[in-house]
Recover the amino acids of this structure.
């Protein structure tokens, strides 16, 4: 399918089966980067990645991969809605985009954005195959997505190899802008280190020092780095880990893990699972009587978990990227909430917010660079300038391409406290990002080359 088959503002859905059928060249890694296929010059800059082929016409193409099936599907759909709204707003020159990217009129540098969507199913290989196709066939000038940190890390590597910028959607692993960082990758959302640094003082204040903690940890980079960060920060107040139950992604039954938790003597259950895994493990913890014995904490809040667990988040502390009631403090959040709810019929969760802001920031950087030439866009990020977001002013660190932004601590409201059906959380604290961040080289980041 050629790019002319992609309608403005519409999604081209690539199934895993279609990709596999079309992917003999992709699987073997035999598709040549666009920079090898063409040595054309534009704007007096050499060809690199999909530049200048990807912007030779009146439009530019974006490749999006999110989980639309599997344990992270609900969160992937929310993330996708944020991308779709951002593209719609960029193409129309919406007032919210202009507040984040003042030089945007309609499109990016006058180019209308078109896009394709692939279901990653939270599987790195499938995400890479989909995005490789978007790069080679559609000359994608930027790729985005995530939700699974394993996917984000894999797309980091693809972006660096193909010299096409990857704007990470959701990824909570320290490694994404740590040991697996790349020059061509950027992340706007919070992660294990910042979540732990923000929520640990709140937990210590609420529950005291010297507590015993049990962890439920998904067995991949996100789970391990979030758990490690929580353990490190809580240890400063004498908290100990009595058990760490590690489970595979998409586990259907947590009974054996919860039995060990129930017998551990823990005071607090810290559930690091995400997506439907978080919902299922929390529900089963209630069924097994674990939540009658110990307090529940969700250090990395999962979009929709309050709704899907049926009240089990009441009184529970969590760290999150965004909660819609901060609109009382941040005017841009209010504008985003209103436009999102009008289009999609519900208050945005943080997956949608994160996708929107990440996309808007990329558009800003291209406009500031005055070119789609990837090294110039990267250097626009690396200026580290203070820029707007939906949670106030933020900036990107040049050393690791991590956005320095606040983390929001919430507590689940009791049903009688809820003002409407989506009023699940009370915002306890908005913690500034600067004091939460590790040193840029703490997790082994080495960005690599521009060209």
């Amino acid at each position: 399918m050629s790019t002319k088959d992609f309608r403005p503002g519409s999604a081209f859905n690539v199934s895993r089966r279609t990709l596999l059928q079309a992917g003999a060249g992709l699987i073997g890694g035999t598709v040549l980067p666009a920079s090898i296929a063409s040595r054309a010059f534009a704007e007096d800059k050499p060809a690199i990645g999909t530049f200048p082929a990807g912007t030779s016409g009146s439009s530019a193409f974006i490749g999006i991969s999110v989980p639309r099936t599997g344990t992270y599907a609900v969160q992937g759909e929310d993330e996708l809605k944020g991308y779709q709204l951002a593209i719609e707003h960029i193409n129309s020159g919406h007032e919210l985009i202009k507040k984040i990217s003042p030089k945007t009129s309609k499109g990016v540098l006058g180019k209308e954005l078109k896009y394709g969507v692939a279901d990653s199913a939270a599987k790195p290989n499938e995400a890479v195959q989909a995005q490789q196709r978007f790069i080679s066939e559609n000359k994608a000038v930027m790729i985005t997505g995530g939700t699974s940190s394993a996917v984000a890390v894999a797309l980091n590597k693809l972006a660096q190899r193909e010299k096409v910028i990857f704007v990470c959607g959701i990824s909570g692993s320290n490694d994404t802008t740590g040991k697996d960082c790349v020059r061509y990758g950027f992340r706007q959302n919070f992660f294990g280190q910042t979540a732990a640094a923000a929520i640990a003082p709140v937990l210590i204040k609420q529950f005291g020092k010297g507590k015993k903690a049990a962890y439920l940890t998904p067995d991949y980079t996100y789970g391990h780095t979030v758990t490690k960060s929580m353990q490190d920060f809580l240890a400063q107040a004498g908290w100990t880990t009595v058990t760490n139950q590690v489970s595979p992604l998409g586990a259907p039954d947590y009974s054996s893990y919860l039995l060990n938790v129930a017998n551990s003597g823990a005071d607090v259950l810290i559930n690091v699972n995400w997506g439907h895994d978080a919902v299922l493990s929390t529900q089963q913890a209630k069924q097994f009587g674990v939540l009658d014995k110990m307090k529940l904490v969700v250090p990395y809040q999962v979009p929709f978990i309050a709704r899907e667990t049926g009240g089990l988040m009441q009184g529970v502390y969590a760290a999150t990227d965004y909660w819609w009631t901060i609109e009382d403090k941040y005017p841009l959040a209010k504008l985003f909430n209103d436009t999102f709810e009008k289009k999609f019929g519900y208050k945005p969760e943080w997956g949608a917010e994160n996708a929107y802001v990440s996309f808007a920031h990329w558009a800003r950087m291209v406009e500031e660079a005055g070119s789609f030439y990837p090294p110039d866009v990267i250097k626009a990020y690396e200026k580290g300038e203070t820029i707007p977001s939906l949670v106030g002013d933020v900036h990107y660190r040049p050393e690791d391409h991590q956005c320095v932004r606040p983390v929001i601590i919430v507590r689940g409201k009791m049903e009688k406290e809820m003002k409407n059906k989506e009023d699940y959380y009370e915002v306890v604290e908005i913690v500034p990002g600067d004091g939460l961040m590790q040193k840029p080289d703490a997790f082994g980041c080495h960005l690599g080359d521009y060209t």
Remarks:
- The mean pLDDT is 90.
- DSSP finds 16 helices and 17 strands in the chain.
